[in-house]
Design goal:
about 375 residues; alpha/beta; 5-stranded parallel sheet; 15 helices; globular
């Protein structure tokens, strides 16, 4: 009897942890890079209590944050209530080969490096931090809105003077030690879009589903909607409207994130197969038949704003019997609702921003000191 001497290689298990508050494409890009270093990506998510103690109150609850991380296509397992201080013991508990973090220092409330223990044990690797986006910056964008501006569309977030963001300025960057937060630092590149894309084409037998929207401040309301849309067929295409269209339809405070920021957040979702960047607000013949032959056009059970010409954007899909309304139990969580959380607790989050900026200053100094020692 012959023996098979082939050795089965143990999958490399990688650990990443964090708050993942208002999960954005910067978080997703870190998870993408970490997954590329191994085979299985395990993500620890901190509890509300741990975040409040070390950084200030999170915008989204731990339940909302756990669900957002689980929906990222590069994540294999989510560990709730992960310790803020990453220990060798937690890595051993989940059979982890090494942990990954961005190339910036993260400290505890007492100023100590959260990853010092795993660094000392040789279980630490770095990935490149995505420049131009952070939860702190997104909160800063929302803090520029007053309740009146939010309701009346009196102030355009896209035309804000960067000097007005002074109290929300962040510390970072090697070239700019006191870089101010602006509306968006994001520079879209084809490379990043390719990195986030699957490149999968639908099979001839696949039922193709199309949905569209703004997908601003991508959240679990969006995620649940996309999950249910995908369940209607085999291949899900998502149209993301451009900034000018969103601004014209929704008002001058929107969108908070630009088209490419929003498209990357959608591409990172495990239920999405393809994204049309800058899709028309109304479903057109080209959408239905030019690139793909769409079988179902879905829309959430929420109010639909008419197009600028006063017409129903789903008129053509309804006439052809392709339209289907999607019940979404999480439709109560909206982009507007997240903004309201910030505005209603303005003083609380302004204090959080100050704390985080002061903490970032110390982390920057520690990073500089560590480099001198190296």
């Amino acid at each position: 009897m012959s023996q098979d001497n082939t050795t089965i290689k143990k999958p490399v298990r990688v650990w990443v942890d964090g708050c993942f508050d208002m999960m954005h494409y910067g978080h997703a890009n870190a998870l993408r890079q970490a997954k590329a270093m191994g085979d299985v990506l395990v993500v620890g998510v901190h509890s509300d209590a741990e975040i409040a103690k070390n950084k200030g109150p999170p915008v989204l609850s731990e339940t909302e944050r756990y669900a957002a991380v689980a929906a990222c296509k590069w994540v294999d397992q989510v560990v709730p209530n992960a310790p803020y201080n990453t220990t060798v013991e937690i890595l051993r508990e989940y059979d982890i080969d090494f942990c990954v973090h961005g190339d910036d220092i993260t400290t505890m409330a007492d100023g100590t490096d959260c990853y010092q223990a795993v660094k000392d044990a040789g279980l630490y690797r770095e990935c490149k931090r995505t420049q131009g986006v952070s939860t702190t910056e997104l909160v800063g964008r929302m803090l520029l809105m007053t309740r009146d501006h939010h309701k009346r569309g009196e102030s355009s977030i896209s035309n804000v003077n960067p000097q007005d963001l002074g109290s929300f300025s962040t510390v970072g960057g090697k070239k700019k030690p006191h870089q101010r937060t602006t509306v968006s630092h994001f520079l879209p590149t084809s490379k990043r879009i390719v990195q986030f894309s699957e490149g999968r084409e639908p099979k001839e037998t696949d039922r193709i589903v199309y949905v569209d929207g703004t997908f601003d401040l991508f959240h679990i309301g969006h995620i649940e909607f996309l999950k249910r849309a995908k369940a209607l067929g085999d291949f899900l295409i998502v149209g993301v409207h451009d900034d000018q269209t969103v601004n014209a339809i929704k008002g001058s405070n929107y969108p908070l994130m630009n088209l490419h920021e929003r498209a990357l957040s959608v591409l990172a979702c495990r239920y999405v197969d393809e994204v049309i960047i800058g899709a028309p607000y109304s479903v057109t013949e080209d959408i239905l038949t030019k690139e793909y032959h769409v079988n179902i056009v879905g829309h959430s059970n929420t109010h639909t704003e008419l197009d600028l010409d006063g017409k129903d954007p789903y008129k053509l899909a309804k006439e052809r019997g392709l339209y289907k309304e999607i019940e979404n139990p999480n439709s109560t969580l909206t982009t507007e609702g997240i903004i309201d959380r910030i505005i209603q607790n303005r003083v609380l989050y302004e204090e959080r921003q100050k704390r985080k900026n002061a903490k970032a200053e110390l982390e920057s100094q520690k990073e500089a000191e560590d480099k001198k020692k190296a």
